[in-house]
Amino acid sequence: MVDNAASGADLSRVWKVLREAGLTALIAGFLAVPLIGLRTIGGRDGMAVESRWDMLMIAVAVVFTGRLVLIALRRVLPRLGAGVGKIGSFGTLFARHRSGLAGLALALALALPLMPFSDRYLVDIATLVLIYVMLGWGLNIVVGLAGLLDLGYVAFYAVGAYSFALLGTVYEWSFWACLPVAGACAAAFGILLGYPVLRLRGDYLAIVTLGFGEIIRVVLTNWVEFSGGPNGIASIPRPTLLGLEFSRRAPEEQSFHHFFDIDYSGDHRITFLYYVILLLALLTNLFVLRIRKLPLGRAWEALREDEIACRALGINPVNTKLSAFALGAMFGGFAGSFFASRSGFISPESFTFIESALILSIVVLGGMGSQIGVVLAAAAIILVPEFLREFSEYRMLAFGAAMVLIMIWRPRGLLAHRAPTVSLGQSGARP
Amino acid sequence: MTAAALLTVEHLTMRFGGLVAIDDLSFAAADREITAIIGPNGAGKTTVFNCLTGFYKPTVGQLTLIRPGSEPALLERMEGFRIARAGVGRTFQNIRLFPAMSVLENLIVAQHNELMRASAFSIAGLLGLERYRAAEARALDRARFWLDRLGLTGVADRDAGGLPYGDQRRLEIARAMCNGPVLLCLDEPAAGLNRAESVALNELLREIRDTQNVGILLIEHDMNVVMGISDRIVVLDYGRKIAEGPPEAVRNDPTVIQAYLGEEEDADLRPEVAGELGRERRP
């Protein structure tokens, strides 16, 4: 009797699973008829339609079994997810040893070019990672702290890059003189974008910022007299060390290898660029860490939590949002100038939407508002495709899959631990 | 009215399309007194608050905040955050804390403007100048005072969103007080509190009135709270003022009783309110 009842329940469960898979296969079948089932071929007398029912059947069968596998996974995944969550509590573990880990990472970053195993390639890749770390930290101000979803961050990167490229090539300003100007330009564009979107939030804000990013790119592509259009701008000056240039043919008193009386090597420049971006990124980090503990940073976070409550407390939402946009954009602008200076050539190609998406995914993967999470995410996103070049065709596939898995298991990012910016224990002598 | 008027509301009217939510309402709230606004559901109480705090622009009317030692502020012309800066603090019917920030941070954010000035728009703060550090220490002291008063010192570093409901309600009041208001508007502070908690709330509000130099404007359904602590009560029904006066007078006012208990066919009766009013009326 008992066995019978149990098997009855089993049967109905099997039936349910089969029905779900069958329905999915049916929908897939419908969709696939025009996509796979029918094909137009160029015949001798014009176009003809050819049917491929065998391939359609295969596709439907794949969907059917795929759905079955998915249903099976759904029972296993939560358990797996819990396991990952346990590993994932390394977020709190990280938080506990934060200063130690940060120190270790910093020491590693400082020593990297001096390591015996390091070569030109490695230092160059590390430079690239650091650019994205800096962009991630900059965007973190807007997205992680102020909670404003910005899909057009690359626009500020582009503004910074073009500011320096134009000032450097037309007026022959040096990198270091241009840096603050490029940052200010980007910040101004941040405010320009911020004003019209003040009332928007969430998806609406995302769409407008996305549009803004595209506008900047399209303008740069089409305004040929100004930006060189699709041809871009070439021979952008390189950064100098207190006026010393890193090139073989520089005048004697102005070149690095003559000044220190060493043989010329291309590695010097690569290493120097690495330290420049390390310095810029560390400045960004220092700024963000400090501003978080200041009224402005707290107001950003409060705005993310509840804008209405902010207004009831006398916080000016307009200024607060604009300052987040402006400061986030400023660091994007710094990174942009560095990028232009490093590659010596820029064109609108470098500032497409995919860059914005990449930077945003670094912030989201790392954990909104987490500084060290951004480093880990940037390293993962830049390094993995670099080391798996053979599989580059599947890069986007792997990228998408990783995003989906992260969102299932750790919806708040890899390291989503938020430490309060002020605590009674640390600041007050209370028994 | 004995004490000086802190807030005067004159001919306040708020229309939403064809619906008249508030109809020619005038009243005053005094400094260091608790003025309660009561009325059945949908009488327009929260709308009054939303007009006062700049979330709605009133269709007609004048709202004046009279602060000792400075110009009167015409609230109907000001933006919400400027009204808050002028000294009108408020809490919300559905609590609006900053849930992912710690309890202490909630109280520090409330002192944003003062700290922002001290930090010279972050520059003095970034440099870690003494002047900012001193301001921050003052802000922490004020936060600590309220944490001690509410018995929340032990959970100061926990996320505000994780507090029990009653503590969240009280934290919201403390946050409004940290903002340094001259008029504190409380929208149903006793909603969802049990008996003991609402008694504690009574005490807290009395203490705030007696020691903190503010006037309190209170919307409340809990008649224990309203009758227990109000100095003055304004009764609204369908957006109009139907009675005003000290608790005893309002309690015995036939129009009020009718508005609450309703006619025979009135199905929208809150039994606990009817019970309270009925019990008060019997002796």
What attributes does this structure have?
heterodimer; A: 431 residues; two-stranded antiparallel sheet; 18 helices; 2 strands; globular; disordered C terminus; B: 283 residues; alpha/beta; Rossmann fold; 12 helices
Describe this structure in words.
The complex is a heterodimer of chains A (431) and B (283). By secondary structure, chain A is mainly α. Chain A has 2 domains: 2-73, no CATH class; 101-417, no CATH class. In chain A, 71% of the residues lie in helices and 3% in strands. Chain A has helices spanning 2-37, 53-88, 90-96, 98-111, 120-145, 154-170, 175-194, 202-222, 224-227, 256-259, 266-292, 295-305, 307-312, 317-343, 353-366, 371-387, 395-409, 424-427; strands at 38-43, 46-51. Chain A has a two-stranded antiparallel ribbon with strand order 1-2. In chain A, strand 1 and strand 2 (46-51) form a beta hairpin. Chain A starts with a helix and ends with a helix. The model of chain A is unreliable at 426-431 (pLDDT under 50). Chain B is 41% helix and 22% strand. Chain B is built from 12 helices and 10 strands. Chain B starts with a strand and ends with a helix. The model of chain B is unreliable at 278-283 (pLDDT under 50).
